[in-house]
Design goal:
Length: 281
């Protein structure tokens, strides 16, 4: 009786083990590849994603990605320091900002965002523009170029909203994007239209602000060399642009008392006397 029971149990166990073996074999068959192949494929997919993200989002606008590069050092050899601001800096404590220093140098000039396109006025422009003068800074105003409206409309909108005075910096055109469906020649004509209209008003050549690769690719013709150039080039020890320049925006990750968050730091390439001579008179 006991022996028969043992044989009976054995006959049940053996087929079950055989069936389990078939399932294991089937599972290995459907997995297709060994584990190391899955790891290798996963690493390749992650690498491809990182490359695509950098190519489409970081590369074209690399100078905007402060988080990628970390805090920038202030270049040596320059004494005339300034900042540029907009509503992104929020409400500024001008009493604190008046005595702020950058590398033991006082802030000499403040350039303020005024307009964008043909309809947008920066919501803090009027307050910032007035305070910059009241607190003794050389002030300036810039227009942010938009591809959604004509150069003529943008120029007249800027002139309607901004009233520069004697002692202010020349008007500034901030241009960073070219329409994809417009030729470089037509784009340059549009930029020149804005510059000429504003120049006729103030009888001084406006300042062109852009990053150096954009300048080289789209505004590199000699006609633009007559305009003061304000170069945006971050996280480098020196400006790589070989042509003449007046201003250098060397970081967008500056910190100053009176301003919450980050602020752009700028350098003037010359003496304080030269800076004053550049202003409207």
């Amino acid at each position: 009786m006991r022996d028969n029971s043992f044989i009976s149990h054995l006959s049940i166990i053996l087929p079950m083990k055989k069936k389990s073996s078939r399932r294991s074999h089937k599972k290995r068959h459907w997995s297709g590849y060994p584990r190391w192949a899955w790891w290798l494929g996963g690493l390749f997919a992650i690498g491809l994603y990182v490359w695509l993200f950098y190519y489409f989002f970081v590369g074209p606008y690399g100078f905007r990605w402060r988080a990628v590069y970390g805090d920038a050092k202030n270049p040596n050899g320059y004494e005339i320091r300034g900042i540029d601001i907009s509503h992104y800096q929020g409400k500024i404590d001008w009493d604190q900002l008046r005595n702020a220093m950058i590398e033991k140098c006082p802030i000499r000039f403040v350039v303020i965002k005024a307009t964008e396109g043909s309809t947008q006025l920066d919501k803090r422009f009027n307050d910032n523009f007035r305070n910059a003068q009241e607190y003794g800074f050389i002030r300036g105003a810039y227009h942010f170029w938009s591809n959604k409206s004509s150069a003529r409309d943008q120029a007249y909108f800027f002139l309607k909203k901004v009233h520069l005075q004697r002692g202010d910096l020349p008007p500034v055109l901030d241009v960073e994007h070219k329409p994809k469906d417009m030729s470089t020649e037509d784009f340059q004509r549009e930029i020149l239209t804005w510059l000429h209209i504003v120049e006729d008003k103030y009888h001084v050549k406006p300042i062109i602000y852009t990053y150096y690769k954009f300048k080289m690719n789209y505004l590199g013709t000699p006609v633009f060399d007559d305009y003061p150039y304000w170069i945006a080039h971050y996280y480098v020890d020196k400006v790589e642009y070989s042509g003449p320049w007046k201003f250098w925006q060397h970081t967008d990750a500056g910190r100053l008392p009176g301003i919450k968050g980050y602020v752009d730091f700028d350098i003037y390439n010359g003496s304080y006397y030269d800076l004053k001579q550049l202003c409207i008179n």
